[in-house]
Structure prediction request, 383 residues.
Amino acid sequence: MSVPASEYQARAARAQALMVEHQLDALLLTTGPDILYLTGFLTRFWESPTRPWFVILPATGAPVAVIPAIGAPLMARGWVTDIRTWAAPDLSDDGVTLLGETLRALVPECGMIGLPMGHETHLRMPLGDFHRLQQDLGQRTCVPDFDILRHLRAIKSEAEIALIRTACAIAGRAFDRVPEVARVGIGLDQVFRGFQRLCLEEGADWVPYLAGAAEPGGYRDVISPATSAPLAAGDVLMLDTGLVHQGYFCDFDRNFSVGPPSPSTVDAHTRLIAATEAGLVAARPGATAADVFHVMNAICQDPSPRPGRFGHGLGLQLTEGLSILPSDSSVLRAGMVLTLEPCVTLDDGRIMVHEENIVLRDHGAEWLTRPAGPDIPVIGDAA
Prediction:
């Protein structure tokens, strides 16, 4: 486990206190981040969609894991001791009967079982199996979890903040080495592969997310896969990484000018850094996500930012929780970890974005990344 067992136990206790408020008799969790948050069960086996996994948090007592037998040894290394398994995959009954039996034992007749149903949630089991489960539950009903997990996961402990800070430091060292893998004439796909290697060399557990672009004077999108097109003088190279350290993500980017930057590139980068610094000052407990957006956009002056938002929550997922955009009235709280990601749209329709990671404290926000300066780094010609 990446944090002490006592912290997982405290998370369960906080969840149970909120369950009492909302008259929930159990929480049913099915996704990797939620299960990891409650149990410490960290695995890359989630990449396989074949097997469903379930953890039940009753109103009192410890969680119960109802999982494929292949996962029992790893789950047993953590603090969960009630581990019920089946031989998965079972094409006729992939844990549904065992899950129903367990819920009937833990939840009283006419009881309510909370499932995450809000924004950014999903049910990680076949819908047909969920319908079967509902039929097996008798008078027990599945209802929304009142965003209990979302509310709790938004506030990071000091142990979580330290892990995210370490992830940021790993990526920061990799960004410092970008000139090793990015020069005029090198294909963007080679840059991507080289940068991922640098992240691993600097200590990343894995690099599930890398996006970027390289185009003259800016770029038109930030989510396309890399092509073999070589870097050329005048390009702006942007790399945006979400690497993982002990289950926790960083998520930030860096821009580089291939050769001397144009005046418009210099101006855009300077504005992005100024907007990010203003966002850091604005991100205080009691402010809203929308407040932070408006402060940054007063500098960016973008009437319709193409990325749609200027940042988001960060933690066990690359993006989680609130969004920094005009319509999000979420109130900021101490302990939140956020990204600040302003965007500038250039005259020809190209854009530039910049991203940093911060943590909110009672007195204001602190950098988790080593913030970039106003001068865009310059990458030279091939040696």
